[in-house]
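During the no-cost extension, the postdoctoral fellow (Dr. R.K.) reprocessed legacy sequence entries with the updated structure-token encoder. One reprocessed record is reproduced below for audit purposes.
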Amino acid sequence: MQVLHNRISNEELRARLFAEKEPRVTVSLYKYFTIVNPRAFRDEVYVKFNQLNVFGRIYIAHEGINAQISVPESNFNAFRETLYQLSPELDGLRLNIAIDDDGKSFWVLRCKVPSNTFREQLPMAVEMLKENKDKNIVMYCTGGIRCEKASAYLRYKGFPHVFHVEGGVIEYARKAREQCLPLKFIGKNFVFDERLGERITDDIIAQCHQCGKPCDNHTNCNNDGCHLLFIQCDECKNKYDGCCSDECKEEFHLPEEEQRARRAGRVN
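Re-encoded structure tokens follow.
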């Protein structure tokens, strides 16, 4: 019987990841194409990638695939060939390889059908930009998938001069470095995995949300009743034990039973 879901605790999986000696490659990819049976396609993807010790998040829907994953270096070529053979639409697909990577971005393979979309935000973008309809509009995002969809939507709504950065900031930074071109994107690029950011340039253009000193390290509040995503410097991380406030720090140190009681019925 084939295993189609993870059955090991997150704690054990994280321990296994940090015990690994072989480097991993972090990759993002996406492709819009018609998938007639997303559930069957999802199961095939999970089985084949799990055999290659691939970790990460893969989202599959009728409209295509979106993935952020990590692969052991020795399995990278096999992974690429497996991906290309899943569908003719995926043959030769560009893979966006992380440029600032410690290989610890994921510790489990999660493969989901259908995923949430950001379709509610697209009409908002049209409304916000309507006064600039005839101007050049350039869109970019982390890996390219959202701006590709958004730029197509804007053109459909009558915006004639819409462009997007193919492959997102990840691919842009890689190509700029390969060709020794000056980088127009400065600072750190937010990414949707455990790293929470890829360093593009040494510039720090943000500040700690708690003390205000220059900082661009994102963190999730350690309090399970919060998990706010915010920017926190090392000093404040030590002061607040990785929490976003004194209140969250206090709750974080309560016995687990009392933490659960406080969280009951509360929206984060």
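The chain has three domains: 10-112, 121-166, 218-263. The CA atoms of residues 14 and 61 lie 28 Å apart. The remaining legacy entries will be reprocessed before the final report is submitted.
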